[in-house]
Amino acid sequence: MANSIINLFFIITLVAVAPLCFSHSTNGGYLYPQFYDRTCPQAQQIVKSIVAKAVANDPRMAASLLRLHFHDCFVKGCDASILLDSAGTLTSEKRSNPNRNSVRGFEVIDEIKSALERECPQTVSCADILAVAARDSTVLAGGPTWVVPLGRRDSKGASLSGSNNNIPAPNNTFQTILTKFKLQGLNIVDLVALSGSHTIGKSRCVSFRQRLYNQTGKSRPDFTLDQSYAAQLRTRCPQSGGDQNLFPLDFVSPTTFDNTYFKNLLSFKGLLNSDQVLVTKNQESLELVKRYAESNELFFQQFAESMVKMGNISPLTGRRGEIRKNCRKMNS
Ligand code: HEM
Question: Which N-terminal residues, if any, form the signal peptide (predicted)?
């Protein structure tokens, strides 16, 4: 009898503390991978199957979903604020400079949310959908996997100014970009590893044109850009017009998640100024680029670690925020 009481006590304690062993504390709230195990055991499978279908239809979607999570987390934390449409006094983050005519994937998130609402109503947050979809996208493109801590809740607001100011711009200096990462609790290792996301996906001409024609205001191209690569880019990214023309961020293996992005940087074939400065402006980031270019394994391991860290930026937990029924609008 005494033995079974002790056993029972042991089991109850174990169940109570287990989540803490796999979780991250931010603002007193905890995220942990098993968050939906009892309330919506199918959640991750549902996200995965819809992401897989979307990426099979459009391989670029893997990149777009990965980027959505980043643009969400850098503004008020990972709280799905990026998904809200403008309504009443709320101005959508979709209108910000980094997002306008650029971020995509909202329909895929809608489809995932509808499927989850059918399976387990008002249980799985839009913020968690973004985190899981980013992981699944990475895996589908050939990248590393990781266990996603869960339990984020959805914001009841958005921040256009936060979106404009916190998300680094492609023409920001190395120092500004690093500062923007540090403001989110991320460091230079996270910056270099997460920039490795640019191993997949596309950029518009308007995001790097300056490098082709007028890098420093003296009508000269950027000399840290390989000149024959620059000449190729100029054919479809003219001095004026063609703003929306698309170019692979990694021209060697545009839809495969691998370390060729870092190899490109070392041969001065990074597409964005913000990519190339990782090797031209700072010794520590240059060393990191060299290490990731040498070892895909090291890159994958650090990428996974940094994604978990990014996914833990200021989540709403407990009773803060809400579980939206529709990712595009607040419940009331
Ligand atoms: C380090 C600072 C960063 C800057 C300045 C930056 C900037 C950009 C720009 C300008 C584009 C092209 C957008 C367009 O022309 O429409 C882009 C695309 C992309 N970015 Fe970044 N980015 C940064 C970091 C990151 C991070 C941390 C991630 C993910 C964790 C990420 C993921 C992506 C992806 C996957 C794409 C391609 C999206 C698509 O094809 O739809 N970026 N980024």
Answer: 1-23
Q: What is the pLDDT of residues 50-96, one digit of tens each?
A: 999 999 999 999 999 999 999 999 999 999 999 999 999 999 999 99
SS3 77: coil
Task: Count Cβ atoms below 10 Å from residue 235 Cβ, excluding itself.
Answer: 7
Structure tokens at 160: 């256009």
Tell me how far apart the alpha carbons of residues 127 and 181 are, in angstroms, rounded to a whole number.
20
- Residues of the chain with confidence (pLDDT) below 50: 1-23, 25-28
Q: How far apart are CA 268 and CA 277, in angstroms?
A: 10
Q: Count of CB atoms within 10 A of residue 1's CB?
A: 5
Q: How far apart are the C-alpha atoms of 210 and 247, rounded to whole Å?
A: 15
Say how many Å lie between the CA of residue 48 and the centre of ligand 1: 22
What's the one-letter identity of residue 252? V
Q: Atom 6 of ligand 1 has which residue's CA nearest to it?
A: 170
Any ligand 1 atom below 6 A from CB of 29: no
Q: Which residue type does 271 have?
A: L
Whole-number Å distance, alpha carbon 111 to ligand 1 midpoint, is 23
Q: Is 70 in the pocket of ligand 1 (CB under 6 A)?
A: yes
Helix, strand, coil content of the chain in percent (nearest 5): 50, 5, 40
Q: Residues 20-52: pLDDT tens digits?
A: 434 454 444 699 999 999 999 999 999 999 999
